[in-house]
């Protein structure tokens, strides 16, 4: 139970401590201004301004040097001249435990993912320590890239011990993790045992005093739900005042509905009067007009995971039509970029391409750009907070909001010369330009380095674990390859036209998986 010791230093810092303040001075601030009845919400840029953080909150934003009377004694001062300070990114869909599979799924399809990498295919493969180090390494990748809030669909719940390990890693990471316990039908851990385990974790509440909290993940809301089981899940959410429930929603040829209509029929979507949990539908690729309307009426959201949906082939043919109730997620970070910045950029440009193409298809010329950088920034930050029903304090840089912050090195080779800070971030920056990251007012990355004095140990423990897991994944019995017949939804498989960058005969391919 190696991972228990890692928690100790964290616990010791909790308790009544003196207020601690940090002043970021003379930087460009990408702030947020809430709209009134006459105006829309908007980003508000302040140049050569100061941001004061006290404890876990943003205590002040100043358009020049903060007046001394506002700055408490003992404040840590950080000069951010020529740098940009923004809120942290919000990822509303991730499976942190899967880090050890890194690069294995590079040529994978979604059907193969289910058969080889998913929660059912890998039951029994990971020890609690494997889950702990995978989850921690996965969250560290996110924190390093400025993702400060994560909705983790935690489907590593194969036993009491693996569940506990993933939750502990989330707490230990210092990230703002909505660690969402997945209730699922697996072989060696009955759903009743999972309910008992969940109650136990919720009652012990070891996350209290940390930015981590408990959510619920459940993928059996529809089309043919076990109504009693759904009721047990949603009663647990109510009993423990759970703030978020998330589900994989796909539809189309994939089946796997879990749609807003499914939840509405069951009576769980329209819950604001009863202060029910935020409901977040990951992907929702084939969402119907009715479901989209329901999301707007009930203020619930989807999580678009752009790279995942392009890589594996989920598709997202209509997601651009419901971006006002959407946020961004990463999904399986072991397969591609683990940062929301890349997701925002990919989604921005892919959506521009789609909407430009609609005009070009009519043999017309686009007269305006369909998607602005400010909208992309809001989608990657503010909309994530809104999806979690935390519009006032997560994903916004505003007085009173959580101090979840990124400082960008505006003088890096890729950013140098910017006039508009939002474009500098969304279209020019990369993760290497991120100098500081704070969550809940505490540095998680400082001067380009993760803040964890045990990081070298975490790295070597993770690498040992990953080497073992990767070896097991290479077992020929686990390799899937080309699929024939029909997917489990009943729809037929079809081989897409394959790219061949090499001239000559053959299809340019051997096996498309590692051996
Ligand atoms: C800050 O410290 C100075 C000198 O030690 C003291 O005079 C002043 O009252 C302190 N201010 C606050 C707000 O504590
Ligand atoms: C504030 O930043 C500007 C550049 O944006 C710089 O010219 C000025 O010297 C800085 N002021 C201080 C007090 O560092
Ligand atoms: C089966 O579950 C038990 C108890 O939950 C656990 O200790 C054991 O490691 C599990 N076995 C496998 C192969 O996952
Ligand atoms: C798992 O935890 C629950 C709740 O504490 C407990 O009732 C159950 O016996 C545990 N299962 C195992 C196999 O230890
Ligand atoms: C439930 O949690 C919310 C925050 O998510 C809090 O505002 C509220 O007071 C809690 N209610 C109860 C009954 O604990
Ligand atoms: C949601 O519930 C409220 C009452 O709390 C009701 O006024 C509203 O019509 C309902 N909306 C939908 C879409 O069912
Ligand atoms: C991807 O496919 C290529 C064939 O073009 C293969 O050589 C390579 O090993 C595959 N990589 C992975 C990670 O599966
Ligand atoms: Zn997922």
Can you offer a commentary on this structure?
This is 5-methylthioadenosine/S-adenosylhomocysteine deaminase. Keywords: Hydrolase, Metal-binding, Signal, Zinc. Pfam families: Amidohydro_1. The chain is of the alpha/beta class and 515 residues long. It is built from 14 helices and 17 strands. The chain folds into two domains: 16-88 and 394-450, Urease, subunit C, domain 1, CATH 2.30.40.10; 89-387, Alpha-Beta Barrel (TIM Barrel). 30% of the residues lie in helices and 20% in strands. The strands form two sheets. Strands 1, 2, 3, 4, 5, 14, 15, 16 and 17 form a nine-stranded mixed beta sheet that branches. Strands 6-7-8-9-10-11-12-13 form an eight-stranded parallel beta sheet. Helix 5 (191-204) links the parallel strand 8 (176-183) and strand 9. Helix 3 packs parallel to helix 4 and helix 3 (128-144) packs across helix 14 (455-473). The protein is globular. Bound molecules: 2-acetamido-2-deoxy-beta-D-glucopyranose (7 copies) and zinc ion (ZN). One 2-acetamido-2-deoxy-beta-D-glucopyranose (NAG) binds at residues 160, 193, 196-197, 200.
